[in-house]
Amino acid sequence: MFASLVSITSLMLSTMLMMVGYGLMNYLVPVRSVAEGWSSFLISVIATGYTVGFTVSCIVTPKLVLRVGHVRVFGALITLLTASILASSLLVDWHVWVVFRAISGFAVAGCYLVIESWLNERVTNETRGSVFSIYMMVTLAGSIGGQYLVPLGDPLNTTLFIVCGIVFAVAILPTALSTAQSPAPIAQVQFGLGKLYRRSPVAAVGAVLAGILSGTWASLGGVYTTQSGFTTGQGATLLAFVLAGGALGQIPIGRISDRTDRRYVMIACGVIGVVAACAMFFMSPDTPRLLYGTAFIVGSMLYPIYALNVAHANDRADPSEYVTISSSLMVLYGLGTVAGPLIGGGAMELAGPRGLMLYLSIGFAIYAAYAAWRVMKGNPTVAPDERSDFHAIAVPMRGTDPAGSIAVDYDTEYEPAQSE
Fold this sequence. Notes:
420 residues; mainly alpha; Growth Hormone, Chain: A; 16 helices; transmembrane transporter activity; MFS_YcaD-like
């Protein structure tokens, strides 16, 4: 275990710095957007640029890594991140910010893919769970720390944008100067959405809904806190509680789902999510402790549901298909993150900032209802001793599945296997 940690020290330091910049950027951009007087719908359009870039990167970046290697791609992506946030401070116009956010989304997704692919090569099956738990804590701590930088400056000037760019630029140094051996080229695999749906319809539909929910909150959570009258400090704290809930909630949810039908856990997560989101709809900054606690519950349902989908799909797949299934789920998740902010922005335009919580509650309700419908169809379950293990997934967004390194290609062939 100690040897595994030593071999990834520089990578973890780069990850921490990148996530500090990520947390600062993802809170700074919506706060500045609101200050510019842009409508919720326009801000959601800007956010959609990010999710489109994120999704495209999941397909394109593996091919780049195959051509030039992990370190060079990571350096190029960090450069894109730095350029996009600095350019945003120079050209404050929502039209060009859509492009800048698409570039940053492409870069962030690619960095996740490179980091997680790199980690997978450095760990063994015995240390994988522990190392990825540390990785989750690093990403969480970095993201929360970055959010708390916003109250220290003025979003209306360029200072925070420059600080963000500097943090991103410095993030490449630990990895670039490391003497550790570079990872081997990633493996090429195939993926097919039809194959995934045949294996597990509830996982395929759930991945889209998980993307809609988490993508909407990640893109518009800062808008919600700003328009609701929170100070930047209060907003950073609320966003931090959501992230903390997303990270810590995966532990009990994963353990429970490993011991029962995962669809029952999906239903429970959806129902609890509905109740918590509806409760936040009626809350205000005047009751901060109650609001933060409820936000923690929302986060603990919001992010783990994607990992539930991955585990459920892998339960019904052959071991050789794990990476293929997970890459397909990632594409569906990405499509959800593209659609979610647009619809969520429209809801906020119609109902005000609290419309976001109403929108999330509807998404949770659909997630629970579809899982319940699949249970009612009477499909066979998989015995606990025949299942794959639940794997916690780093928040706020992710690159590849912890099962391995991927480079995606299209495949429409279908091989019979256990279906839901």
